[in-house]
Amino acid sequence: MDLEGAGALVTGGASGIGRAVVALLRARGARVAVLDVQDVHEPAEVVLRCDIADEAQVDAAVGAAHDALGRLDVAVLNAGVGGFGGLLELDAGEWDRVMGINRGATFGGRGAGGGVLGGGGGGGAVVAVGSVSGFLADRMMGHYSVSKAGVAELVRVAARELGPFGIRVNAVAPGTTDTPLFASTSRLPGYRARVAERAALGDVGTPEGVAAAVVALAELDWVTGQILAADGGVSLWSPIDPAESLGP
User: Fold this and answer.
1) Are 204 and 196 in contact (CB under 8 A)?
2) Angle, CA 138 vertex, CA 137 and CA 141 arms, to 5°
């Protein structure tokens, strides 16, 4: 897909990965509508305040974005929230908070599917932002992991359902990325250094690095239903790797 002149929608585009996606899409020539509950400081053609967990708000915002841009060719479903707590401690309120916001990919995907289809005469791309936590067993993050595993399966089902309309649906699964969400891990002694050491590329990711993967998936015309890990190789680490016993 050529992004020059394309209409693009980004949920959660006010900060972190979403903000980097907005900047890169515009650099490629796309016109961008941002949906977020936060104030948006990255330049964009359209800014709409929207709670991604609210079905009616999402439907209205997607429609408004389509009308303002005249077409929707790309939808990046990035908005989400983290959570921390052991399964034995989680109450229904915390579980529902994380699941409710992260299910926004369902509402956004549904609304954008129709908008993408009607925007450019058929066809388009939907890219969701999941997480490697959707397929890793991270302690203290059960509800977050379940929500992101759901995003991965949603992408596969949506790819089959929307494929006949020429709409490609994929996801990027970031690992540890230096965003405002990741900043909360500063209270965990040594966490950042440990993650960087275990990543094959030896560092924590950047929003710009993940955004490049998101935009690449939007541009690839013959790829759908795929989950691309943009994690610097942190998900390759194995606790039973025998080479670790041999030392540096």
Assistant:
1) yes
2) 120
Q: What is the CA radius of gyration of the chain?
A: 18
Q: How far apart are CA 222 and CA 63, in angstroms?
A: 27
Q: Determine if residue 8 is left, alpha or beta; phi over 0 gives left, psi from -120 to 50 gives alpha, anything else beta.
A: beta
Angstrom distance (rounded) from CA 206 to CA 232: 10
- Identified catalytic residue from 22, 98, 119, 144: 144
Task: Retrieve residue 63's tokens.
Answer: 């429609």
Separation between Cα atoms, residue 59 and residue 86, nearest integer Å: 34
User: Number of C-alpha atoms within 13 angstroms, CB side, residue 51?
Assistant: 7
- Distance separating alpha carbons of residues 102 and 78, to the nearest angstrom: 9
pLDDT digits (tens, 9 = 90+) for 135-188: 999 898 888 999 999 999 999 999 999 999 899 999 999 999 988 877 777 788
The residue ranking higher by pLDDT, 239 or 49, is: 49
DSSP string across 19-69: HHHHHHHHHTT-EEEEEESSPP-S--SEEEE--TT-HHHHHHHHHHHHHHH
Residue 191 is among the residues annotated as catalytic for this protein: no
pTM exceeds cut of 0.85: yes
- Residue extents of the structural domains in the chain: 7-230
Top-tier CATH class for 7-230: alpha beta
**Element (H or E) spanning 151, and its range?**
helix 142-162
For the stretch 117-147, pLDDT in tens is: 655 455 899 999 999 999 999 898 888 999 9
